[in-house]
Write a structure and sequence with these properties.
Length: about 750
Amino acid sequence: MLIGNDPLGYKQLTARYPQAVSLLLDGNESIEQLTELLREAGPIEHLIWLAPTTLAQDGDTDGMIRAQQGGVLGCFRLIKALLALALDQQPLEWTVITRGVLTVFGEASSRHQVVTEPVAPAHASVHGLISAMAKEYSHWRVRLVDLPEGDGWPNLDPLLLPADPRGDALACRNDVWYRQYLAPCLPLGGAVGRKGKVESLYRDGGVYLVIGGAGGIGRLWSEYLIRTRGAQVIWLGRREQNSQIDATIAELAKLGPAPRYISADASKYAALQQAVIQISAEYGRIHGVIHAAIQLEDQSLARMDQQRFTAGLVAKVDVCVRLAEVFEHQPLDFMLLFSSLQSFTKSAGQSNYAAGCTFKNAFGHYLAQHRAYPVKVINWGYWGHVGSVASEDYRRRMAEVGLGSIEGEQAMAALETLLARPLSQLTFLRTSRRLSDTFSSLELPRHPAGPFGEYGEIRPEAYPSLIARMKKHLVVDSKGVRATTQQAEAQRATIDALQGRLLYSQLQQLGWFGREREIIAEMKQRSGLMSMYYRWIDRSLDELAQRGYLHMEGGNSPTAYRVINPQPLAIEPLWTEWEAQKPDWLEQASLKAEVILAEATLRVLPEILDGRIAATDIIFPDSSMAMVEGIYKYNPVSDFFNEVLLDAMVEFVKGRLEQSPETPILILEIGAGTGGTSARAFEKLRPYQRQIGEYCYTDVSQAFLMHARQAYGLETPTSVISFSMSTSLWRSRVSRLVVMIW
């Protein structure tokens, strides 16, 4: 069943899936109305829901509040209607599609943070709701997809993507699919500028407005700023000032200027604007704004009504939007949005809070594109001693999943790091176990290689960045290479399909796929497969399963497979088909080298796998690079990327020489291989030969290094060319390293 909440989205869905039952909604249907519509539509096995259209360029921030009605609230009512029909008692497949919600590409600048990819945050709240739903109804198969803005669709049908039990999203950009994950950030010392001065967006005696400041985390932040900066803090809250607030103000007044409390609903434009006018009249300009408001309304989706869901959402969505409106033209030093780890855990029973947090994250990125001041987002972990969940029982429950309580001084140091560095968003948590164990317990998104598979280090800037210069001068025209690759796409698809059949047939020659069900470990032994190819066969079996030849058993680490069609696949007709089409393939410069190499290895694949022939004897016949050289050069795709890479390198070298003309430049090429990149690099570096201190050509293969010595050792225009199987000799010189190529 297809569900569109606006005519444009409905048209996209029905054009894409014309055979499906479809519903066009206006986003205002009640739960009862939706229940009847679904009942009339008949049995539902797969539900496809496309978020209403919004544009990143649309400056109507107030429209983002209205958009929640047909977006996350419409989706919430749809879930409630499904529950009313008892569909929670049976399997159901979901595909939920948003557009331009996630930030995939971004960069830092001197303005501390700017996101280059347009963000349309209105329906980011849908991501929080759907992910929490996936955890509450684990028997529902959920895929959450974020496509680029516009009406285009990726080549890979989103319905073919695997469902995610955590409900985490996949984002498609330029036909490449991305998954979000958390990467550790390692701050090394303070935020020190080139002149040795610690930088900060906080100012001594600054005036700061804190929404929700009288609460736990806001109060702690206020104490820190009053104590360390002598700041004047104004709290804005919905409740009337009472004795508890008075007592807190009196306590903090012992440290510096007494906080001021104003009772106003920041989710209402008029109320917030009036408060800001009052503050400006009394204190002059406001230097920073902090959104620390929170309203927890935890409950399962089955028990939660729309009023409760909306209340949790408003504290995030409406307040963010009103702050953006009121402070649109104010000369702030910064705006800081307090969000939560819930943005990534999206826990069961907290769907409204998760929806608000995912909106807040995306809105922070959006606002940074449209304001002259930095906008930062901090995702807090568990606060066990202040705030709305500061109880012994909650601390015990958090400890069981690996979360310790955040301490104030550590948290304030994390904020200093966020505000002083070109970071747009930072997550801060304290663990009670190893980081990897906590990530596993909370099912946090992480790099495939583990929490530290990729991480960042904050280091002092050694010299001014040249990124802006490179972007300004680097001109990239990809039309030619795109046209070339598009011409070859149909043939590439044919080659790929035929390679899959040849792979299956050649593995049959070694005894694979002879029975309906086989244990993988036993087949590795029975087929005579060399142990060095065990990982290769695992990946090949997975590839064949994706192509419909096999069904894998055992989850993420398969132990067995079932053969879809046990009948042997004859090899000779396949090679006859290959030979018939090969002349056309070889006419395509972007395919020629791949076709030659693939055929050479596939024809003797059984002999390679059982050790009768060494793979290197086929790939490098008589120690020649001829078989693989065409993959890396004399190929329109690799030649294009080599040119772009090396043009960027030259711009970097030119800029560095302008900064420091006498400093010798060291260049390290990692994984130089056959020298496809190196040869052009030497040509482009010829005008700067006297300034190049060393060009180090590295690879793990001695054969590649020998080839490079023969091909380039005597002709390089650089002062020195060195050859190395590792970079260990460079460790003492890494502080002078200027360019790395890989």
